[in-house]
Amino acid sequence: MSQLVDKAKEFVAEKVANIKKPEATFSDVDLKNVSRESVEYNAKISVNNPYGHPLPICEISYTLKSAGRVIASGTMPDPGSLKASDTTLLEVPVKVPHSVLVSLARDIGADWDIDYVLEVGLTIDLPIIGNLTIPLSTKGEIKLPTLSDLF
Fold first, then answer.
1. Quick one: which of 59, 92, 61, 91 has its CA closest to 78?
2. CA torsion, points 17, 22, 25, 29, in degrees to nearest 10?
3. Residues forming a β-bridge with 132
4. 110: burial class by Cβ within 10 Å (0-12, 13-18, 19+)?
5. Partners of 47 in beta bridges
6. Which residues of the chain have pLDDT under 70?
7. Bridge-partner residues for 28, per DSSP?
8. Could you give the CA distance from residue 89 to residue 83 in angstroms, rounded to a whole number?
9. How far apart are CA 74 and CA 28, in angstroms?
């Protein structure tokens, strides 16, 4: 009897490992808004859903790092769902307080930008399987707003 159970577990594990999963990639990270309190950036993520039905997104978590420090982090609970058999563009707003930007003065230097690493975890609810988190990471430079952007 235990051999039958072991074979069933093996069969299920093999099928689950070979199941199609949604794939995600970063499209862009842009300046979205400048206020007196913070600068808001917008990370765009393209997610391809291989299934013929929409998949609910449980949450999107993000961490923005610069110079080895976390400068912004947060989660977006229940941001919607992925379109069936299509690519969905998700927008993740990332707010960075001005006080954090001042503390990064050395990195900003003469070129007026921040070298960053953005890590995103996209948690999707797959039927039968359960929650699946797709980890994403991108590096780049974010241009800081100038005085003309503020006024």
1. 59
2. -130
3. 124
4. exposed
5. 24, 88
6. 1, 8-9, 11-18, 101, 103-111, 144-151
7. 44
8. 10
9. 19
- Are 65 and 116 in contact by the 8 Å Cβ rule? The answer is yes
Chain position carrying tokens 């999107």: 60
Q: Which two tokens stand for residue 90?
A: 């998700």
Rounded to whole angstroms, what are the CA distances from 77 to 56, 81, 149? 11, 12, 30
Look at the block and give the residue holding tokens 């007196």.
Answer: 36
AA letter at 149: D
CA 80 – CA 59 distance, rounded (Å): 9
Structure tokens at 125: 């609810």
Give residue for tokens 């093996």: 10
Closest CA to 66 of 120, 116, 137: 116
Query: pLDDT digits over 106-120, tens only?
Result: 666 656 777 889 999
pLDDT, one tens digit per residue, over 126-142 is 877 788 899 999 998 87
Closest Cα to residue 79, out of 53, 65, 61, 52? 61
Q: Is 14 helix (H, G, I), strand (E, B) or coil?
A: helix
d(CA 17, CA 14): 5
